[in-house]
Amino acid sequence: MIQELIILVVFLAAAFYMGRMLYRSFAAKSGCAKGCGSCGAIDFRKIQQELEKKRAAAQ
Fold first, then answer.
1. Torsion angle in degrees (nearest 10) through CA of 36, 37, 39, 45
2. Where are the beta strands (DSSP E) in the chain?
3. Are 19 and 11 in contact (CB under 8 A)?
4. Which of 9, 24, 53, 59 could join 35 in a cystine, given CB atoms 3.0 to 4.6 angstroms apart?
5. What total of structural domains would you count in the chain?
6. In 3-state terms, what secondary structure has residue 32?
7. What residues have CB less than 8 Å from 3, skipping those under 6 apart?
């Protein structure tokens, strides 16, 4: 009986963890599906501004 409860708790914890990862991959605001949070550090607006400055300087 105790062994079955331990297995149930471990299974529920694993199911919760997998569900949380799945939810975070679909709810990612940065477009990254990994869920590690490193993609949020990329500033796309800054990159776009730098590219526009380079294009303006080249013309």
1. 170
2. none
3. no
4. 24
5. 1
6. coil
7. none
CA 54 to chain CA mean position, Å: 31
Residue 58 near residue 51, CB atoms below 8 Å? no
pLDDT, tens digit, 9 for 90 and up, residues 31-59: 555 556 566 666 678 888 888 988 888 87
**HSE-up of residue 3 (Cα within 13 Å, Cβ side):** 0
> What pLDDT shows up at residue 58?
83
Tell me which DSSP letter residue 43 carries.
-
What does DSSP assign to residue 37? S
Domain membership of residue 42 as a residue range: 2-58
- pTM over the 0.85 mark: no
Q: Angle at Cα 57 formed by Cα 55 and Cα 59, nearest 5°?
A: 70
Give the confidence band of 26 by pLDDT, cuts at 50, 70, 90: confident
